[in-house]
Amino acid sequence: MARTVQSGSRDKGERTDGQKKALLRVLGHALDGLSAKIKHKAGETSEPLGPYDGKGKLFEAYITFAVRRELETRGIKANIQACDGTPRDWFLLRGSPGKIKRAAKNIDSEPFHMKLVGKGRKAFELHNSIGWPDHHVKSGLVHEIDLSIAASERCQQLAELKKGTKDLPKPSIAIEAKFRNRGPDKSLGRELTGLAYGLHAGHIILVSSKRAHDTVKKQMEAIPSLRNGAKTQTRDFAFFNTDRLVGDESIFEDIAALIIEETGLLRTLTSSLGFGRRKAKKQ
């Protein structure tokens, strides 16, 4: 979700150099040798992900690849694909809000996605920084989601979406990534409440670098009771639980388990293999 900073001012919540270095270390671990680039806002240019800052895109990228690693550990195939579904052995991250495209003159210039395949027939896709329609306003309003997971047919529906369409697609899971020196405050809680009301996602997950304020937690706990018919569930996770610059990578075990539960990717094997949600540590 976008915010505005006046020109010439410094965001008091901006991450420190130490935090960025710690993030780059775990990002390298999550990539595990995979080559990754990020596409610039305009044109077909891109640059390697490692040295790129991108105002939060590094954290978004880290969550993407950490989740991929945990899903594959649990038996989910997270295949990298170009926009047209062609397999790729590297990844191109979306550097600014955009739309799903299923074709392009140069497919390697359009952001990639991951196709999630489990034991059932239904496949899902993981996309970064795409807009999903508001089910309440219904006037072309879209919400950019940092990371979204949805059934492939829903993603196709979103790619073909036209103004005035009544049957609007919705994501199974919406992940909001916040990497700042301070924890999310009540203003973010209000934003997430409004997002949940219009988005109709099955699950909204907040992943922040620092522990969210108690007011955010209380607002998120109230989201399932919104009277919009969606019954959206919520969870929040903090990557840095202490002032020490050591990230808690175990949160991605819980996030992967939530994804499997919400999508049913392993539903046919859950009871026999015991795949389920690990008891989460209190944040």
Characteristic terms for this protein:
283 residues, alpha/beta, seven-stranded mixed sheet, three-stranded mixed sheet
Explain what this protein looks like in three dimensions.
This protein is α/β, with parallel strands linked by helices. 28% of the residues lie in helices and 23% in strands. The protein contains seven helices and ten strands. Strand 9, helix 5 (214-222) and strand 10 form a beta-alpha-beta unit.
Strands, helices and their partners?
Elements: H1 17-31, E1 36-39, E2 46-48, H2 57-73, E3 77-81, E4 91-94, E5 113-117, E6 123-133, E7 142-151, H3 152-159, E8 173-178, H4 186-199, E9 203-210, H5 214-222, E10 233-240, H6 251-263, H7 270-273
Parallel strand pairs: 1-4, 8-9, 9-10
Antiparallel strand pairs: 1-2, 3-5, 5-6, 6-7, 7-8
Helix content: 25-40%
- Terminal CA distance: 23 Å
Could you describe the largest sheet, including whether it forms a barrel?
7 strands, mixed
Structural class: alpha/beta
Coarse morphology: globular
Question: How many whole angstroms does the radius of gyration measure?
Answer: 18 Å
Strand portion, in percent? 15-25%
Overall pLDDT score: 86
